[in-house]
Amino acid sequence: MRIAQRATARAHDEGERKVAATARPAGTEDTFPKLLRHHAQVRGARPAFRHKDRGVWRTWSWSETYDNVRGLAQGLQTLGLRAGDKIAIVGANRPLLYWTVTAAQMLRATPVPVYADAVADEMAYVLENADVKIVAAQDQEQVDKLQSMADRLKLLDYILYDEERGLRSYDHARLRRIEDVLAEGRRALDDDPALARALDESIDAGTADDHSIMLYTSGTTGRSKGVVLAAGRSVAAARDTVAFDGITDADEQLAYLPLAWVGDHYMNYAQAFVAGACIACPESADTVQEDLREIGPSFYFAPPRVFEAMLTRVTIRMEDASALKRRMFDHFIAVARKWGEKILNRESVPLAARLHYALGEALVYGPLKNVLGFSNIRVAYTAGEAIGGELFSFFRSIGLNLKQLYGQTEAFLYVTAHPDGAIRAETVGLPAPNVEIRIAADGEVQFKSPGQFLTYYKDDEKARETMTPDGFVRTGDAGFFEEDGQLRILDRAKDVGKLADGTLFAPKYIENKLKFFPNIKEAVAFGDRCDFVSVMLNIELTAVGAWAERNNIAYASYQELAAHPRVYELIGKHVDEVNAALAQEPRMAGAQIKRFLILPKELDADDGELTRTQKVRRSFIAERYKPLSDGLYNGADIVDISTEVTFEDGRKGLISGRVKIVDLARHDAAGKERAA
Amino acid sequence: MKLKRIVLACATTLSLVAPALAQESVFVPLFTYRTGPFAGSGTSIADGMHDYLSMLNERDGGIGGVKLAIEECETGYDTKKGLECYEAVKPKGPVMVNPWSTGITLPLIPKAAVDKIPILSMAYGLSASAMGETFPWVFNPPDTYWDGMSMIIKYIAAQEGGLEKLKGKKIGYLYLDAGYGKEPLPFLDQLSKTYGFEQKLYPVPAQEMQNQSAQWLNVRRDRPDYMIMYGWGAMQPTAVKEAAKTNYPMEKFISIWWPTEDDAKGAGKEAVGFKTLNWHAATGDFPVIADIRKHVVDKGKSLAAKDKIGTVLYNRGVYNSMLIAEGIRNAQKITGKKVVNGEDVRRGLESLNVDAARLKELGMEGFTGPIKLTCADHNGHRPTFVQRFDGEKYVKITDWIEPMTDKVMPLLEADAKAYAEKNAPWPKRTEVCDVKS
Amino acid sequence: MDILYRIFIDPFVQMGGAPDLLVQTLWEGLVGGVLYALIALGFVLIFKASGVFNFAQGIMMVFAALTLVGLTEKGVPAPLALLLTIGVMYLLAVAVERFVLRPLVNQPDIMLFMATFGLTYVLIGVGELIFGGNPKKMPTDALFLPSGAIDLKILGGLVSLQKLDIAAAVIASVMVAGLAIFFQRTRIGRALRAVADDHQAALSVGISLNQIWIIVWFTAGVVALATGIMWGARSDVSFALQVISLKALPVLILGGFTSVPGAIVGGLIIGVGEKLGEFYWGPLIGGGIESWLAYAIALAFLLFRPQGLFGEKIIERI
Amino acid sequence: MFYREVGQFKTTYAADQAIFPIRQDRIGLAIILFAAFVLIPLLGGEFLIASVMIPFLVLALAAIGLNVLIGYTGLISLGTAAFMGVGAYACYKLSTIFPQVNVLVWIVASGFVSSAVGVVFGLPSLRIKGFYLAIATLAAQFFLQWCFVRIGWLYNHNPSGAIEVPGHTLFGIPVTGPQATPITRYYVVLVIVVVMTWFASNLVHGRIGRSWMAVRDMDIAAQLMGIKLLPAKLLAFAVSSFYAGVAGALMVFMWLGAAEPEAFNINQSFILLFMVIIGGLGSLIGSFLGAALIHVLPIIVRFLPDALGVPVGAATVEHLTFVITGALILFFLVVEPHGLAQLWRIAKQKLRVWPFPY
Amino acid sequence: MKDDILLAVRNVSLSFGGVRAITDVSFDIRKGEIRAIIGPNGAGKTSMLNVINGFYHPQEGEILFHGRARRRMKPYEAASQGIARTFQNVALFKGMSTLDNILAGRTLKMHRGFFWQTLRHGPALAEEIEHRKFCEEIIDFLEIEHIRKAPVGSLPYGLQKRVELGRALAMEPTLLLLDEPMAGMNLEEKQDMSRFIIDVNQQYGTTIALIEHDIGVVMDLSDRIVVLEYGHKIADGVPDAVKNDQKVIDAYLGVAH
Q1: Domain segments of chain E: what residues?
Q2: Chains that touch A (3 or more CB pairs under 8 A)
Q3: What is the CATH number of domain D22-353?
Q4: Domain of A663, in residue numbers
Q5: CATH number for the segment(s) E1-82+177-257
Q6: B240-277 in b/e burial notation, b at 16+ Cβ within 10 A?
Q7: CB-closest option in B201, B246, B266 to C236
Q8: What is the model's pTM?
Q9: N or C: which end of chain A has fewer CB within 10 A?
Q10: Are B5 and D309 within 8 A, CB to CB?
Q11: For B403-419, what is each residue's pLDDT tens digit?
């Protein structure tokens, strides 16, 4: 990328960052372009974007960013993008793609980020639905995908791309390189002051009511819906949380989550634009971990599965350490588990324990955070799904200030968040600033928030269904407030069911408990209107594979490993532990797992078994593996199954095999075991 | 306790806080080489030096009532290790050093005056250091290699019936191709011009010490009337064997003072007649040796093999230690101090005078001749005798032969002057002189 | 002109003038060459079979001779001492295989080369520790080695042939012949030859690589012992001999690393060459040139035939 | 464990191409330099400075030279000591012919003389490879050593046959000869070694270093990259000999004070070779580590029994030193064929990923 | 454009000590094309490449590069004229990192002398960085960012092949010789490599001559094919023509001669 990059940012060689004296939260700006202009004026020399490209972190200051975005906006305008038009953005986290978002907003057009890993059909639906005029794509792969669906997209005028390789020989009638568009725009602005003025006017003309962005929700059922968010509301919401977490222009964060996800757009775009923080884009998906370590963000956001994967890797890597080191590690982790959270919560802790912990910090936690790239993190959030208590407290105990938030695309993310000092894994915290929450009679959580969405694009009907008449948004999640006012989410409201005997059955709750074991990758719980609860499981290949290697268990495939009796034994123990834990909870004791099986294939979004955000589609799975779900309730011990799978390259194939179903003993409410 | 010692050891080796030696002792380091290519010679010398000084400690309680702190430092005849030894002993206040290697002596010479540690390089080292006015801190008694050469020539002349008879004779010189062997070359050259004999040179490279057939082929071709050898270590037995192989008349093969009994024994009975210079006896029949046996060897405090006691190099070690001891004793006498230091011992050595009476007291009557050093003469240029190998041991066959001091002195003077010039600015002598000769 | 005369004419005049000396020089050169060749033979054996450039061959020679002499000095009868020494060399071979070769298998050649340096130091240290650094006399009589010389009055002069040297030549010939038979006629010998070409092939003969290494090193050890006895009898047995053993290196260059005949011929060329050089040309530049002449000869040779006299031409494949 | 690399990112190639890109390494280097320049002279005894540090630095410099040849270019040389000798004799001659010029100038200049000689002896390297070349370098070793003995002009016909170092001063402070304090000499050596190490580090990290390593790793491919073998090899010989030459001059002028030809014998060459092997081929740090181990270990072995109160004869210790050195060589080759530098790299890597094993 | 002849092989014969490796072979390579050389094992394909880049000198015949004839040329001269090469068995510099290997390919383009190299400041550093930039483009092109600083010796085979291609590309060659670029690769790796080869050819206009055993790949990739057997040329032409050539079919099916 050879875009204007002046020497100003080079002063920050070697990652030295200083808090700029001018740091103060932005004030009255109500759109992102205005925020950008503000930062360009106030902290023009501070870094705004970084991107590891060609081996080094190219850095753009706020003023450079402003210039580039303006150029890009002008270029887009030349290509015919007008206020109210839609422009889709498909690709990984790249400054140019972020800039495209802002440039579109500058023109009062609406950017529509799309999941880059979506298959052509899904993508086509979104683009079609959103009436997209221009698509900004990352590379040849995306361009190819887009061109394959060109006939479906009548409105599509141009495809823009960031990376040229492989595209040079393409027909450029409707193909443009973003860089060229940007350069042309800049030239036009330089040559014609009138254009520049017009652009300034366009920025000024932006109002709080502009459609700032359209985010397509993945939705566990049906087609995805375009959530329309207003500029003013978005900025206001971000402003609240920026103040809440004290984010400043000294903060730096790594943008590695899908652009189309509200999490990324909020955390890495809205918050950064409000606070003037710096957004760093990784070199490639393969290097995220390394890039995280290099950048050392101060603010970090990741869904639980990322933390889970990290902990799994930590565990696996530690398994290979020498016995002495492992013992040291285990010892200090135990110390951390005992004291770490208390210290983090500023509770009173005996001096000896503090010293012990300090030693652990020097020997284990500090280096560990260093290796994971967490050393500089002030605040980290996780959201999107429930996080396991063990997992959550592990990261907190080693000194990572990890908090949960509960949010929705419809809320523009924040509904609740953990306040410092009162952080518990089971809860998702107190209502975020200026958010109102209530629990409906049927247990559904409903909220009113500053960032609340306007409507679903072209589906006001649906939007009305989602809203209560008094303006609250239905989350569709069932939950309740704990005594200290913190919200606790049980499950999707419609998924919460009852067993045949009337016991409350919250499948997600049980699934999450199972998934907290590193060896279990996915769990699908069944039980609504049944006699008992049963689950289908996916094992985590890396963790179980490593375990198998250590225990000299040979296997040739996932399927073989999943069917191995000793793996069943191992997983059975985990399920039993979950039962024991459930037995401790008065509401849940009745919903213990009676039967389980391990699926012969990994659940996959390409097969429709998971959503793009990796949530299980329970009913789809039940249908797809009908013999299995039947087997769980007809007492069979072994069931034969054959199913279609999609391979990575898109080919389809058939997997068949026999699956064992295992029965488990039941724990009574006091925790003692008794016969089922 | 062990740990503490290790810590202490590390502290001493690394930071080298000079450990305070026990009071009331005089520190005498001995640089020895019981390893390396010349270990064969070095071991006997080391034992001789060590045993004599130990004997003084055992028998007399040291010198003048002060114990000697004797410490061996292994040099392996390696200059670098020798310098390391020097640096290691320096902080402990040695009263003198005996480098026992010309290679080690040379770098130490300029340091001596600075560090105030006298050097005793007994009949080796830098010949010019005999000039006390230039080298107040270096002593190389009782003879220089030039003295040695002059005495060999004189002995040859005596065999031929006078120096004038040397005219037209061919004299071969087989030498170690190193500083030591090359040193006499200018002197030999001078002598050959003076007396009209023809010199034939046979250098032996250090790596080829045991492979001298080429040199001896030359000898066979040139047929020199006499052969002189300045050899060292394994060069010497090889030379004797080669001489025997070449049928060179052993009686006409004369070496400087370094060959041992073993060097000759290798060639068996064909080595009979091989001759070397010496200035001390090569037997063990002296009171001093008896005392060593009684107080040291029999008490198991010696490392020496029994059969080596009284051999050429063992006795040379004893002689060396006698000089050390007398130097210290003399220093005590001059200064009146009991615990003397390097500067005192320098004066002691400079005014050393071991006369016949003193030799008798030392149990060395007949063991060697008297020696006297002065401020100007740090060598003594003592006469030596020729000893002949009889198949088992060396037997003295001549009376004392005086060196050609008149011929040697000008050379030494010129050399000392050249040395001082080349190493300018060479310090002028400022040290006190107790005995003006 | 004088210089040119002395370089190009005079030496030959001398040769003609005293043919007996020339013969004697050649003889000395040949004897020296035989001994170089014996050391080189040890190198070649090991290099051929295991690809190891055994720098320790020289010290093995010293060590073997020292052990022999050390044992006889302790009063062990010479023949028994000889057997015991052979035993020691066998143990050494086993130890080398176990502690050096086996752990270093598949390492680059240079590593194995360096390992033999380490071995050299260990053997020097152990040798000195046990036997001390004193030069020792080889008990030639007890080993039934002849002494004295045969004087031939020919060519108007005298050529003196040491019986010991003749014995050395005879022993060397016997050893080379023995090794040749061993390699050509015995199963193990054939395996050894096979291993040089292909490790797999050797395995098919039914001998493990490890055993082959032991056998080769042991054989080299016996050769070293023979060499040590000869050199020891000529001068004394001391560690200084090790330096002489370096002379085997130019012999190797000349003969090629893998050629037994090369080692012999190379040894003779080097031996004769350096003696002639030292004797006739050495005095021109002050003598003592023997220390490097051998290397210079080898180097000059190498520039024209980089693979040595008998080595195979190296065709580089890519 | 001590590494905290989080947040150390590079925004320019210059920073990314730096020789010590990790801040902690730079701090470590600074500490080492501080120790070398301040702590050791301040706290170290004379023995430490004169007999441990100066020789260590001189040998390390020579080892770097040898490493350029063996480690970086893959050319085995057994003649390093002789090239040190060339440097020493050149420096002696130059400083006696032109005594008015500062001796430090000659110390550096002698490197060039050595370099030239090195190139001459490097010429066969085009045709000769591997062990054959190793043996060819022995020719240099023995021939040059013979020259030192035989050519009287080289040592100004001193009767001792040795070269002696007269006193020279720099800004009025004696830097050579007996008047020069060990600390002065130490500083001179240290500065030269540090600067030359820096140069070497620059060289091996740049185009020239890459072409050397290319020749080492795969000479055929190197040629097809457009690297001419002979110039690359000769340059390696020249640089290697330059370092050896300067080290040799330093050895005589700053450490020994006088030297006979024997100081540059084949044993010295072998010892340098050990340093490079044990230290690690193709590693400058390794050259230092190797020099430290090979030079310092015997000193410790020698003084330890004494300090522990265990009476061991001086000779026995010497023999043991041989055994231990040899065993160490074997040990390192078996355990870590890439030497101390590799151990260092592994240790560093372990520290970087601590507490993980990889 | 495509009809310009970049390199012509004229009646080349090569033998090693009497063994004939190549006998009287002639063919040409046009600018910008992908030219394949195929043939059974031992057909002399690699020898042919070695002749082209000057590693072997043919006893007879001549090579014309850019229309200029040469008989004896050193490999580095070939390199400086723009002929780059990869090897059948990866010939990377094992002790160096990926980046250094690729940078080594820039050697010919770097000119700063010894003096600046020792300082590694000023011009030398500027030059180093300039070439680093170029190499980064290649790294990006070949998608090997994640192994940029890894020592190549420890990389999997497929990646090593890619790095080797990168090193050759760093020379900005006019003619790129690839000796079995896909040997030992799995299907996916082969697809990647094919893509790279086509991209190189298209994006940089580099002329490519390659040896490959996978006939399917060869047919897909190449513009024209030369078939060698026992050192003789038995066919030469576009893929379709070659595929149907009876001699070629015989050679590949192993019909007795």
Answers
A1: 1-82+177-257, 91-172
A2: D, E
A3: 1.10.3470
A4: 497-674
A5: 3.40.50.300
A6: bbbbbbbebebebbbbbbbbbbbbbbbbbebbbbbbbb
A7: B266
A8: 0.87
A9: C
A10: yes
A11: 999 989 998 999 999 88
